[in-house]
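Give me structure tokens for this 241-residue protein.
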Amino acid sequence: MNEVYTPKQIAKMLNISTTTLRRYEEQGLIPDVHRTASNRRCYLPVHLQSFTVIRTLLQGYDIPVVYEVMRNIKKGNTVEAFWLINRQLHALQEEKQRVEEILTMIRNTDFSKYRNIKVAEAMKIGEVAALAGVNPSAIRHWEKEGLIKSERDRENGYRMYTVSELKKIIVISSLRKTIYYIENMKQLLNELETQHYTKVERSFQLALQKLNHQLATRFQGIAELMKYVTLYREQTSFRQT
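Here you go.
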């Protein structure tokens, strides 16, 4: 016979509030919950595992992704849920490759090409944004914060960015999730401009460590997810029989 849990028991085990449990239920993230004649919720091991999965996945994945994964599993779309997780892992892999690529770029004195695209001495904001893989609005924001600077084209007034500023933009886009304070980023960019690469490389190594930790966290979530899928399938099979 399945063990039965009260909302307070599960909330205590997971160190969250019963309100949070209800919110997950209302969002359609967990299996349907049986209620007693007095309208009290009766959570089973499959519910406990579903809550555990949500809390673990949220440590490494975006909220909308976690919610969509859980809803897909509830609907029986397990494979689609796995592909959602896989896309997030792929994005993390791409981010790691980007950080490593830019670290190599910083060490390379020849920056005539980036991602097999020829780099001009003066580039418009759209060109720089495309090379760096960011939105032009982000570049304008960083310029407003004093992280980068541009010159105005005398003929048309367009912002023009040098190769040196492009390097800064690429570094900012890669480390913005690791370096949270503007002044720290300004100091790092100054080190880049004066070619004092020791601190710059250290920042990139920290970024890589953070990505490694995030990868481990995501796989912890996957481990809990697989336990949940097994329990949920067993429950569904039992109900059908």
